[in-house]
Amino acid sequence: MWLHRAAPGAAGHHQQGVRFDRAFPVTVGGFARYRRSQVGPYEEVFASPAPVVHEGRILMPIAFTAVDSAASLRGGRANWALPKEMATFSGWSAAGEDGAWSVRARVVSIGARIPLLGGARLLQVAGDGSIARSLAWARGMGRAARVDVAVSGSSLAEWLLPGRHLGLALERVTLTVQAPDAVGRV
């Protein structure tokens, strides 16, 4: 998982219909390998152009996520309105099935192991125009890291920037995402 200063206009790349009062100038990206989940093991790459303030809350809209599991794709779209698409993975490298984009990350330095507990409130827009908020939290171990990131193709490369970024190398993490609350319509 890494973060970098948001590119100019990054907040304009959120899902269509995401409304917010202001955006923070930070972009978050990451890879995950789920060994166990309700849909079995799978790999994922995800990114948020910028955390936002919506109705007085700091929220994290996920504008891009790709997985190698059709069950995860269906579940993520249906349950959390995540804009999942299919991808192929090789280590910490992912490419869209149509070849339109690719993302690669490589940890180049790593710090001491520390216990982690953190969370984020997600803000997503479903295909029917409903707005959903859900709480995601993680606990486990991690290490401060520097991550080399390469990104190519589609509009993803306009806001998920390549380069060496600050990050976290997460180890033995448990991630929980609550069922979303419907909070309105676009």
Low-confidence stretches: none
Gyration radius (Cα, Å) is: 16 Å
Please identify the top-level CATH class.
Answer: Mainly Beta
Number of domains: 1
Number of helices: 2
Helix and strand element order: EEEEEEEHEEEEHEE
The CATH homologous superfamily is called Acetoacetate decarboxylase-like
Oligomer: single chain
- Total strand count, please? 13
Largest sheet: 9 strands, mixed, barrel
Helix content: under 10%
> Given the C-alpha coordinates, what overall shape results?
globular
Give the amount of beta strand, in percent. over 45%
What is the distance, rounded to the nearest whole angstrom, between the alpha carbons of the first and last residues? Answer: 30 Å
Structural class: mainly beta
What is the topology, as strand order, of the major beta sheet?
1-3-4-7-8-9-10-11-12
CATH fold assignment: Acetoacetate decarboxylase-like
Average predicted local confidence, pLDDT: 93
